[in-house]
Structures are given as structure tokens and as C-alpha cells.
């Protein structure tokens, strides 16, 4: 039976690497590609990957902060399959990283960060929950961050990003509480400090390449899907499988 996965924020970085990794593991993949980027054409790396995938990769224009865009993406999935084994909510934006409570805060920007990082993931999980629960794996993976951990918080800024990731963590627990009795699974993973373009330029200080982070995440996914998995409950874990405080 064909196994389907959906990855949001698949244009580049960890999302693109997750797509490549899932294809390597034999999955058919829906790749949510932010329609507003300049990386949307067939000449992009994702476009080239689609062309060489033998039909196993389907790019879907997707702005997870927009209800209409998500609705169109859900219809694109439904036109192909009624089952989805894995949803990886990877799409995210940073927002302002400098302003503290003593500065002027940009609340409109903060609202957009929440719409993407927290509500965007919820839109996807809500819209795809039926095909997820019809599948064999029944897995939702939310890519969170150590920045969302209240227990280990050291920053005095990053309001939108930190708060939205904390909201994503709570969302994950609520979903887990609902679907676990039905065999559903939720994972909340901090991908590590990755060399990505989330800050508008390549973060060369990152410890991990996108391929390294995605490879580690998919190993954790394999472990979670193992029929002999012995883990308990839901936890915020990092790419190495270490538990972080909520």
C-alpha cells in the first residue's frame, strides 16, 4: 500500500530535506510550498525533485496562515488519497528577534507569526485529521523549538516566535489527548540550531545542516512508528531524542 506524507514549509531548509528523506524512505509526498516565495518554479530544487520523483512528489502551493490556501491544499490531497500516514507541520517564521518589553513591539507582525507557527499548524492538523486517522501510521509531527520551552527560557525577546512555539506545544498535547485513544500519534521535535535562511540570510552559526537535522528527525519518526515502541506519553524532544522541559 502506498504511504503518503505531507510536509509544510517544504521550499528549502529542513522542510526540503524532510521531503528528500521521506522520498528516500519510499513515501509519496505532498510538499507544501509557500506560494509567495520566488522559489516556486519548476527550476527550483523542489521543482527538480518533483520532476525526478516518478510521480511520488506533488508540490502544492500553500500559505498555512491563509484559510483559502489551506482549503485548496486539502482538496488537492483529497483528489489523490483518502489516507495520510504522516503530517509534518514544519512551516514557520521568526518575526522580530530584538525588541524587549521596553521597546515598541510590532503587534501586527506578531499576529502573523502566530497565524503561521501556531494556527497554521492547527489548520493543517484539523483539515487532515480524518485521512490521518484512516492511515496505518496516524502520525502528526510538529516541528517546534527549544525557544518554546518555558522551563528553559533564557531570552528577553523573540516574543512572537517563543510564544507561538509554546502555543504549538500546547496544541500538540491537546491533539494527543484526543487521538491517542484512537491509535493516533503526535511528536513535538526541536530540530536543533540549523543552517537555514529563517533570518533572511544563511545562519552559518548553525550546528546542523538541514540534511543532518532532517535525517535525525526521520530516525525519531521511524522509532515512533516501530510496533515495539515503548515510549510513554508526549514530550518535547530535540533532534537527538533528548527530552526538553515544556
Summarize the structure.
This protein is α/β, with parallel strands linked by helices. The chain contains seven helices and eight strands.
Task: Give a verbal description of the structure.
It is globular, with a radius of gyration of 17 Å. The mean pLDDT is 94. Helices cover 39% and strands 14% of the residues. The termini are far apart. It is α/β, with parallel strands linked by helices and 246 residues long. The chain has an eight-stranded mixed beta sheet, with helices on both faces. Helix 1 packs across helix 7 (210-225), helix 3 packs parallel to helix 5 (119-134) and helix 4 runs parallel beside helix 6.
Order of helices and strands: EHEHEHEHHEHEHEE
Strand order of the largest sheet: 3-2-1-4-5-6-7-8
In round numbers, the mean pLDDT is: 94
What is the CA-atom radius of gyration, in angstroms? 17 Å
Largest sheet: 8 strands, mixed
* Low-pLDDT regions: none
The amount of helix comes to 25-40%
Core attributes:
246 residues, 14% strand, 39% helix, 8-stranded mixed sheet, alpha/beta, 7 helices
Strand and helix map with partners:
Layout: E1 4-7, H1 13-24, E2 28-33, H2 45-51, E3 57-61, H3 67-78, E4 86-89, H4 107-117, H5 119-134, E5 139-143, H6 159-179, E6 185-190, H7 210-225, E7 236-238, E8 243-244
Parallel strand pairs: 1-2, 1-4, 2-3, 4-5, 5-6, 6-7
Antiparallel strand pairs: 7-8
Helix pairs in contact: 1-7, 3-5, 4-6
Amino acid at each position: 500500500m502506498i504511504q503518503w506524507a505531507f510536509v509544510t514549509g517544504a521550499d528549502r531548509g529542513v522542510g526540503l530535506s524532510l521531503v528528500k528523506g521521506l522520498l528516500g524512505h519510499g513515501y509519496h509526498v505532498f510538499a507544501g510550498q509557500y506560494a509567495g516565495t520566488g522559489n516556486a518554479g519548476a527550476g527550483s530544487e523542489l521543482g527538480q525533485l518533483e520532476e525526478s520523483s516518478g510521480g511520488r512528489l506533488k508540490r502544492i502551493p500553500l500559505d498555512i496562515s491563509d484559510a483559502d490556501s489551506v482549503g485548496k491544499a486539502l482538496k488537492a490531497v483529497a483528489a489523490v488519497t483518502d489516507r495520510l500516514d504522516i503530517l509534518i507541520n514544519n512551516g514557520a517564521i521568526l518575526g522580530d528577534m530584538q525588541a524587549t518589553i521596553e521597546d515598541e513591539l510590532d503587534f501586527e507582525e506578531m499576529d502573523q507569526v502566530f497565524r503561521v507557527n501556531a494556527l497554521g499548524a492547527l489548520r493543517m492538523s484539523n483539515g487532515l485529521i480524518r485521512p490521518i486517522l484512516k492511515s496505518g501510521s496516524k502520525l502528526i509531527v510538529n516541528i517546534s523549538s527549544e525557544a518554546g520551552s518555558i522551563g528553559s527560557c533564557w531570552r528577553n525577546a523573540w516574543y512572537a516566535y517563543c510564544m507561538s512555539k509554546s502555543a504549538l506545544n500546547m496544541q500538540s498535547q491537546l491533539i494527543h489527548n484526543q487521538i491517542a485513544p484512537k491509535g493516533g500519534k503526535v511528536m513535538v521535535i526541536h530540530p536543533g540550531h540549523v543552517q537555514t535562511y529563517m533570518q533572511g540570510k544563511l545562519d552559518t552559526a548553525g550546528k546542523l545542516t538541514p540534511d543532518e537535522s532532517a535525517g535525525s528527525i526521520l530516525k525519531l519518526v521511524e522509532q515512533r512508528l516501530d510496533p515495539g515502541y515503548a515510549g510513554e506519553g508526549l514530550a518535547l524532544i530535540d533532534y537527538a531524542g533528548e527530552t526538553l522541559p515544556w
